[in-house]
Amino acid sequence: MRPEQPTIVVDADACPVKSEIGETAKKMSVRVLMVASHDHRLTPQEGVEIVQVDRSNQSVDLYIVNRIARGDILVTQDFGLACIAIGKGAIVLSPRGEQYTDENIDYLMERRHENAKRRRAGGRSRGPKAMSDADRDRFQQKLTKVLRGEQENHNV
Fold first, then answer.
1. Mean pLDDT score of the chain, rounded to an integer?
2. What is the pLDDT, as a whole number, of residue 129?
3. β-bridge partners, 33
4. Which of 74, 106, 130, 137 is the most buried (most CB within 10 A)?
5. Where is this region: Disordered (predicted)?
6. If one looks up domain 7-101+135-147 in CATH, what number appears?
7. Residues 6+ apart with CB under 8 A from 124
8. Could you give the angle at which helices 79-87 and 59-67 cross, rounded to 10 degrees?
């Protein structure tokens, strides 16, 4: 385990696993910081600090970038935010329990760019599939492993 406990930082605007994060963090006595815009209502949980920022489109990301530190764990679906956090030495997980790393983030950013170009040209791209109970379980298992220092470098 790390000598110092990390903080779990959550890009909470559209995070579907907030309750799972709270449960896992409580069991392992880890601090949680959930950041969301004022447009999103967050339910208070024991041991979870909630910060709400203005609704401009990058406020949550900027708040997180300015506070995340080496060894912290970020939960986000935002590849751009993930890139910055990886560069600062954070461990980054998707809400489905996939770990973003130096080895896979460039591919994910390129894929996002190609999909955006296709949409601008009138094409379609599929959105993510709905979260399942299996996805939630996989996330909780991965978060637990990371907190125990058992992380592996799994590509997305």
1. 86
2. 78
3. 9, 49
4. 74
5. 114-140
6. 3.40.50
7. 118
8. 20
pLDDT tens-digit series, residues 93-121: 999 999 998 777 766 666 765 666 767 77
From 103, 108, 107, select the one nearest 76 (Cα to Cα). Answer: 108
Task: Quote the CA–CA distance of 137 and 17 in Å, as a whole number.
Answer: 10
Q: What is the DSSP letter of 33?
A: E
HEC string of 35-82 equals: EEECCCCCCCCCCEEEEEECCCCCHHHHHHHHHCCCCCEEECCCHHHH
Radius of gyration of the CA atoms of the chain, in A: 15
Q: Which helix (H) or strand (E) holds 140?
A: helix 133-147
CB 19 within 8 A of CB 143: no
Length of the chain: 156
Query: How many whole angstroms separate alpha carbon 151 and alpha carbon 5?
Result: 15
> How high is the pLDDT of residue 130?
85
Structure tokens at 19: 């309750």
* pTM (predicted TM-score): 0.82
How many other CB atoms are there within 10 angstroms of residue 28's CB atom? 13
